[in-house]
Design brief:
alpha+beta, six-stranded antiparallel beta sheet
Amino acid sequence: MSDLKLKLEASLGKPIDMICPNNFHDPSHNHCAHFVSHMANLTFSFNCVEFKGGDKQAGNVRVHEIFEKCPKVGRFDDANQSEVQLVFVTRKNNVDLERKKMGNIPQKHIGIFCDGMVYHYSNSLDKVVKWTPSKFLDNFQAIYSGDQGLFFGAIPGSDLLLNVRPSGELVSNGIPFKLEQRNGKWIGQALSGINQEEFLIGREVNNFAKEYHGIYIPVNEYYGEKYKATEYTDEIDHWAHLIDATAHCESKGFMNLVNSYDRAKFTFGFYQLAAHTPRDNLILLFRELMTLPRAKEYFPELQMHNGTLHRIDNNGGMSNLESEVDGQLQLFMDFLNPRRKLIDEQEILHAARLIHWTAHDLACRSAQVRISAEILQHKMATRYNQWYKLNGQDDTICAIIADIHHQGRASKNIVKEALNSTNKEETLLSVNNHQYQARNERLAAKIKEMKAINILGNKVYDAALNEFVSK
C-alpha cells in the first residue's frame, strides 16, 4: 500500500483539526482543498499558514488554484483510473480544460481518487469520507445548481520525479547515462553518443549538523574545461574580467562544478548559479540551454512554454517549473533534486547531464558565459549602481562589490561604509573578515594579479552606458 493510501485511510472519520497542524480549523469554512493539500503536500500559496497562522507544513485552501497547478487535467471519464489523481466536481461550464482554468465560484469540490474511491472532506459531516466516483458526482449534482461534471487532475509535482532505473539508465528519450556509486563517489558514463568515457559526477556529503546532504566536487578533484576571460572579451568586453574575479573564488573557473547539498538544492557552473532564485541564476541558464540544438538529448523532459520553463511528462502534462512558492522556484528545485535530505539518482542524473553537456559542447559553455555576463550587467545597472552611485568608480571597486553580493557576505550598509573609507579597495576586501577571511584573501590575490598585468585598474564604470571605459 502506498504512503498516500495509508495517509488517506488513516484520515477517515477525522475532523479538520486532526488533519491540519496549523490554525485553520473553523468548521464554518470549506476544507475540501485544505484536506487534499495536507494529504498530497501541496504547500503553495494561498495556504492555511498565510490565512490563519501556524508554523507547520502548510496546505493550499483553494480548489481552483490547485486545478491550475495540475500538470494535466481532463474529463474524469478520460482519466487513467489505475492512477492516483485529484478529482474535481463543479459546473461543466465552469472549467476551461484547454487553458487549465476553473472559475472561482463557491460550488466546486475536490477529492483524491485512489484505488477506485474518492477520499474527500465532507463539510456537512465535518470529517473525511470516501465515496465511489458516482456517489461523489451524484451528491453534488443534487446540491449544486446547474449541470455538474467530474474532472481529473494529475497531482501537482507528481511529474517531477523521473523513472530512473537502478542502473542509472533514464527511461525516456535522449542520452541515457550509467550512474555508479563507488565508495561515496558517483561516476557517470554516457551510454550513447561519441564520448562514452567515465567521468566524476561528485562525492557524497552528509553533514547532519549543517544539514548538508548531496554531492560536490572537492577542490583537489576539479577537472575539465575552465573559463578563460580572454576567450570571451570580443563577445562580452570588459565584463569577462569582472566575471573572472568571482569565478576564481567560486570555482577556480571550472565550468562543470556542481553541488546539491545545501538549501538551494542545486548549484552549477563556474559562476555557481543556484536553482532557488526566480528570474535569476540557474533558471536563466536553463532557459538559454533550451534554445540549443542538443537540448532534447540532455533534458528531453523540459520545454519552454509561454516564456517559462516547463516539465512535460509522457502523457503531455505540463508543470511550470518557474511557479514561485514562498519566493523560491520550488518545482524547479524539486525537479533537479527531489529529496533535500536524501541523495538519489535523479539529482545525480541531472548533474551528470550538465557535466557531460558542458564537457562536449562549446555552445553549452558559451551559454554559461553569456548568462553570467547578463546577470552581472543587469545587477550592476539595476542594483549596485542604484545603491552605491558607481558612475566613475574603478573597475576594481565594481568587481569587488559584485563578488561581495554574489556570495552575500555583506549588507548594503557595510558596503556603503567601506566606500566612504580612505582606502575603499582595502576596506571592501576585508568586509566581515571574521567570517569570510579565506574568501576575501582569495579575491584580494586575484585582484592584485589582474592589476599587475593591467587587466583591471585602467577602466571606470560608465553608468549611462552600463559599460567600462578607459580612464
